[in-house]
Amino acid sequence: MTVLDNPVAESLLGQHAHLARWIGRAATYLPDVTTFCALPTEPDPADWSDLARLLGHDGFADMFSNAAVPPSDWEPVFVLEGRQMIWPGRREPGEPRSAADVAIVDLGPDDVSEMLDLVKRTEPGPFWNRTVELGTYLGIRAHGSLVAMAGERLRPPGWTEISAVCTAPEVRGQGHAARLVRALSARILARGEQPFLHVAEANSAAIALYEGLGFETRKPVTFQGFRTP
Fold first, then answer.
1. Within this chain, do residues 17 and 125 fall inside the same structural domain, yes or no?
2. Where does the N-acetyltransferase domain lie (predicted)?
């Protein structure tokens, strides 16, 4: 489970190696995939220098759940407290529920414009033109329009992160988020991995949803971003 302590680095070393850029021990994802950066859990000055070279002047260093403190000339952009949650069991989270008129569909590159529009309306977290390349994304449509989605993001060994869980305001309260998380969890478990996720501490509704499905808090995390000198 220690791979979850630095999930961005572990993902870029493994399942997402084809989406990585590296200098020394510093890494980032390719542009338009995600802004996440990776360093060792306890980086030294050379690691920060290598990350600055990767990002360039005034580059955005999205450190995700790495709480390491950068050099003093790096400009803080944001700090957000959150938590990392894991699914500890082997069965699907929650009790399976379905509705005859609700179909879950796979989403891909042809759906990106709709996915970006839904993200803009719901603000579940960062999502870019190539984020869909990180893993499986599922959605629910109403009258032909995408109204809910969730997908896979970080892939440390043995684990898959569920992310981008969002529902359009006009269809909230119908259980779409729970359906999508269950469906993704079933796929993750079927390939012998375990689901996990991250959530902002202030998002009490999402925390309640995940706890209701059976996810447990593993540890608090701090999301932070900086600008390079």
1. no
2. 102-229
CATH number of the domain at 207, please: 3.40.630.30
Instruction: Give me the percent of the chain exceeding a pLDDT of 90.
Output: 90
Rounded Cα distance, 151 and 71, in Å: 34
- Is there a single domain that holds both residue 112 and residue 182? yes
Give the residue numbers spanning the domain of 95. 85-219
Alpha helix stretches (DSSP H) within the chain: 7-13, 45-55, 112-122, 176-190, 204-213
DSSP string, 146-189: EEEEEEE----TTEEEEEEEEE-GGGTTSSHHHHHHHHHHHHHH
Considering Cα of 11, then 15, then 21, then 23, what sign does the dihedral take? positive
Q: What is the pLDDT of residues 89-98, one digit of tens each?
A: 766 676 545 5
